[in-house]
Amino acid sequence: MKLRLLRYWEQIRTSFWFVPGLLALAGLSLALIMPWFEHFFPLLGLSDFAFDPGRQALAIIASGAISVTGVVFSITLVVLNMAASQLGPRLVRNFMAEGTTQWILGAFLATFIYCLIAGVNMQQHRPFQLTLLVGLLAGIFSFMLLILFIHHVSVYIQIPRVLERVGCELKAHLRALFPPLEDASMAEPSLAHQHQLKKKLMDVAAPASGYVQGIDLDQLLNLASCHGGFIRLCYRPGHYLIEGCTLARVWVREEHKSALIAGLHDAVLTGSERTAIQDPEFAVHQLVEVALRALSPGINDPYTALHCLNKLADALALLSTRQVGLTYCYDERRILRLELYPYSYGGIVDAAFQQIRQSALGNAAVVIHMVDVMHQLSQLALPEALRHTLLMQLETLHQENKSRLSPLDLAALSRRVSQVQLALRSRPEGGRLNKP
Length: 436
Description:
Mean pLDDT: 85
Order of helices and strands: HHHHHHHHEEHEEEHEHHEEHHHH
Helix content: 55-70%
Largest sheet: 5 strands, mixed
Low-confidence stretches: 431-436
Distance between the termini: 48 Å
Strand order of the largest sheet: 1-5-3-8-7
């Protein structure tokens, strides 16, 4: 249930209808309430407003507000188009989730609706001064928001700001998905238990095609425990399911089979696109996509690629302090109930560096900087699997560029590669900075 709420919240958070719709409803409600409020609580100090000029002022504010709303929507669409073409279509979600744009759009819509309805409801024989004053203040405030919106957009589309937000989101998901090293347990089930379960497992087919957006592990664990069964997942969030393929393999008594399968299907959320709820590689791929587009011949912006490498290295430094690869889940009686399709250090490192390494062949600035960020990572006490994957990426990078760089650049690269290799092979395993 919690996972479904998170998905619904993610859909609402990245929409342009929820916040503007709420503010528009608030403007409508306020316009309908104000005549009643002024009837019971007249404010005699506001009796200097004339009726006809006041009504015309509300009409002018409403007309201006809806015109500016169109301008704001147009600027927003231009920004989204720029983000899709230069940074990648997957980053459009980040721009749509920006709350400032949503609130400003909502403020203009609320002002338009309030002034329109209030102007229609105003009657000369009833008090209208406070209604008019609220409309005038809303108009002044809304047009001040236009200046704020222009400033916000000019700052928000800058590449360093975009990458900072994506990097922070990636680190937040890594913290949420992977426990600290000292808090994790990697207890393995007995070989006899594994062998017994392996003989009795049956396949459960996927009910529909789509990306796995999330898996409710608590629901699956309770489900398997209640029915005395065992579930082995064959996919994880971020993978694409094809209808009819093996979603999981389970063992359960025959009388509980249908209930377990129905609960399994309900606990696995699928959709038409990947989300960042339980998929840390999604944010990694966002940064990688920006770097790949920056390295393309049409854009040729190596500095953006260098910035992406810095953010990826920052995320990998955090990853080194987390336990990746948790596979087995037990119930309260320490009985094995759930086996996951685990993430791995190698998979996340490959997702971060592999495509950039392939696209940066012969680009001395990017290749040398990639080695430099690996050198920074080598100063951490990394888990063995993470150090091994970095070494493989480093050696592949060196071999691929031996025939593509000038002698001077190759000498600088080789010198750095030797230093990083020595550091990675000599660092002890762990997850914290080495103390001097």
